[in-house]
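Dig into this one:

. . .
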Amino acid sequence: MIMLDNTIVNVALPSIGRGLHVGVSQLEWVVNAYTLAFAVLMLTAGRVADLRGRRLVFTTGLVVFTSASLLCGLASSAGVLIAARTVQGGGAALMMPATLSIISAAFPPEERGTAIGIWAGVSGMALAVGPLVGGLLTEHAGWNWIFFVNVPVGAIGLVAARLLIDETRAEGVREPLDLAGVSTSGVGLFALTYGLIEANRYGWTSPAIVTLFCTATVALGAFVMLEQRRRSPMVDLTFFRNRTFAGANLAALLVSLAMFGIFFFVSIYMQNVLGYTAVRTGSFFLPMTLVVVVSAPLAGKVTDRLGPRWPIAVGMCLLCVALLLFSRLGLHAGFMDLLPGMLIGGLGTGCAMGPMTTAALSTVPVESAGVGAGVVTTSRQVGGALGVALMGAIVAAAETVRQGDPRFPVEFVTGFHHALQAGAAIALLGAILAAFLVRREQAHAVSPAAQLTSTSGPATR
């Protein structure tokens, strides 16, 4: 549900606009409100999960997310919908780090890569299938149902979480929540993400965007200084001294930046240039989805045997190839022209996503798994926002006419090619950095000094 709601809304935006009688600027915030809340709260949510209980935080987030989904579907105005989407993003932020920390606590180190590979396969599948599900629901049931569909799934998830997940937390840690860290990280991540979202609208050198980036720099700098001086920081910055942790997070940022070139701009190209419907566009992503679902668990098994270094590097090289193939598409491409890039892109995504998460979490003690998961998911979210902003700026730089002008498709495709070529270069850089920085670490098991509690439910192993 978390990853699906990153993409399912995009294809429904025109219908939402007609149904609520709102313009483009308000529709953009239907997407951006979710993204902002999601990015800003994940670090805090990861720490709270470690301290208060991972199942508790996960189920709390699930209640918030499901309730907000219901409100989104019932919304009768743009203001109500945007407010509900903000709450929904907050619920997603509570759930996401907890999902990974629950896996880290439930599986021994030698099986963790495979488990996280399955997690990555589900995530990749949701991202790719979102446009298709959104198109089908919008065309045949109405835009409200892209939100209503979360309600029964959320209810089932709550029951399953109670029955199947044991409660775990970091024992022996009685420090209060680091409010200074929460405040500075929240302000910094908000300013950074908001600035990236609005940079192309206002201009990268406009006073508003420069102020936001300066605010982000000051706030995140203050966060680093504060965390270095605390006995029990929200994020232990010594994690970044480990080259594998730092490299995995850098790879997570770069792979999200490159991936959004496929999910975001290829989707726009197929609808605005090739003239495909939302449903047809979504169906064209299905081969990619299937490859991700199959390859991600296999990459996890390889990671358990050989370590995460080469799966990440190979996966990002494959993403580079996929982006280069997409950058050769013209004004009249067909399914067979798109298929090679889809298959190679799916394989690259499946190879890279799980191992980079495994690499980051393998360097973090299990009692800090929530924080580690929060850091790596924040890296991915910021990378996605940066990818849309950067590639959007490249596409816009090639356009001098508006959509509807007969020259628009030619100019868009020119910018589209340049953006994907830049994304390919970024993916190749990520592959090189992963090869140099990521090493096979001795994964942390449960430490004697920080035993995990198990308070209810059947054993997860």
Remarks:
- The longest helix spans residues 109-140.
